Amino acid sequence: MAMNFSEEEKKKMLEDESEIYQKRDDGLDANNGQLKKLKGREKRAYFRQYYLGTVAVVIVVAILAVLFFKNAVQKKPHCVLYIAIEDDVLDEDKVADFEKAVEKYLNIDTKNEYVKVDNGTSDQEIQTYIYSGVVDVIIASEDTYKRWANEGCMADPSSSDTVSFYKDYDKNKKYFAKYVSGEELRKSKQSAEKLKSSEGKTYNFGLYLSDSKKYKETLGGLLKKPVAGITATSKNTEEAKQFIKWMME
Q: What parts of the sequence cross the membrane (predicted)?
């Protein structure tokens, strides 16, 4: 049913100042000129209350966007040769200088590439690095190197063309060791070093750096008979090959 109001009732409704009939006014509205009436401190308080939170969010989002874009497009330097040295105590400054010398010899772009000489990694870490292809070259004492050779972690000329250059050196420069297969290890309770290979054959798994001036003088190595070689999983075989040759000069 439609409701009919008298003229007097309509007039009263129009004049009613109750909130339900008034246009909502939130107070300090910049559009109605009231903001202009505020003084400096009041304006700052008004700004903090109504805008500062939004501005802060916008700034944070903008910074995150810039950082994300920068990381996405910026090319990070990558390692072109990873050398793990065990059983020796080396001076950090000499290691740093040695890395620079190797980088210079390999003529690499040092802005995008680098050489890493690792002298403080545990056997477990090195084993993981070998299996994952991180380590390219290992330098160690005869005993430690023997373990990696026995387990087949090092490349040899009979199965890898990468280290065929080992054949160019005199026999007294070559390091020989047996290889014990995983099956032989599983059947035996002995370690790879103690277990005899069923083939009874040794392989040229590395080269001695006993007379290497670069190892003794440039790097400051103290091992009497260090052995160096390229891992069977190396991903930077050409750089590893050049490095070993350089060390043997």
A: 50-69
What angle (nearest 5°) sits at the alpha carbon of residue 86, between those of residues 85 and 89? 90
Cα–Cα distance measured from residue 80 to residue 236, given in angstroms and rounded to the nearest whole number? 6
Q: Which residue has the tokens 């003529």?
A: 107
**Alpha helix stretches (DSSP H) within the chain:** 7-15, 40-47, 53-73, 92-106, 123-132, 142-150, 182-187, 213, 237-248
For the chain, give the number of residues: 249
Which CA distances in Å does 84 have to 40, 81, 228?
A: 66, 10, 10
Closest-CA residue to 240 (of 96, 119, 102) = 102
Q: Which bin fits 155, alpha (ψ -120 to 50), beta or left (φ > 0)?
A: beta
Residue 27 neighbours by CB distance under 10 Å: 7
Question: For residue 224, what are its two tokens?
Answer: 């009497």
Pairing outcome for strands 137-140 and 227-230: antiparallel
Task: Say how far apart CA 222 and CA 140 lie, in whole Å.
Answer: 11
Question: Torsions phi, psi of 189, nearest 5?
Answer: -95, -5
Nearest to 163 by CA among 232, 115, 98: 232
Predicted model pTM: 0.67
- Check residue 108 and give left, alpha or beta (phi > 0: left; psi -120 to 50: alpha): beta
